Amino acid sequence: DQQVKQNSPSLSVQEGRISILNCDYTNSMFDYFLWYKKYPAEGPTFLISISSIKDKNEDGRFTVFLNKSAKHLSLHIVPSQPGDSAVYFCAASTRRGSQGNLIFGKGTKLSVKP
Amino acid sequence: NAGVTQTPKFRVLKTGQSMTLLCAQDMNHEYMYWYRQDPGMGLRLIHYSVGEGTTAKGEVPDGYNVSRLKKQNFLLGLESAAPSQTSVYFCASRPAGRAPYEQYFGPGTRLTVT
To answer: Using CA atoms, how far apart are residues B82 and B41, in angstroms rounded to an integer?
Structure first.
């Protein structure tokens, strides 16, 4: 049973426009959510996170929104750039029981076209 | 700082052969992880360690063994490789007790079992 779901395997966006990547989760015990970015032949790199006590966190062009009642979060990239083309993984963690282990979604491949 | 390094980068094994993947980190992190990434499956946790001399099973531990004899190293062993273990393996580490439990990943090892 997938606890973290990224239902869109791919997304294509024009340069300069907004990219919106979505993530849903089922475990209400999750208290932190993270986004990772992965280029081909490289390891994932941390992008941005949000605590469950917040509904928004912003870092430059990247903003993550959390809707706890819907168990949904989204990553907004504005404006999108060709260098943002990568696979984006949503991940979640809880301090209770799992020692902060991350549960990852399957990823969404973002293509930003010039 | 080299961060997290993985050895080797690529390997081809025949069914039944054994091998050890080495992960090393120079950030003095307490926690270390081994993941596998398969197409369309995201990152799945194989084993993890919360400190030197300790290991624990993750989501997909069967067919793998691990050891953490030194704090900076985490070894992943395949005793009798199977084609189902063809995958990209990522090692990660993080410091203890710091939410949101951001993990730092190595560049990956691409393993093919024929």
So the answer is: 18
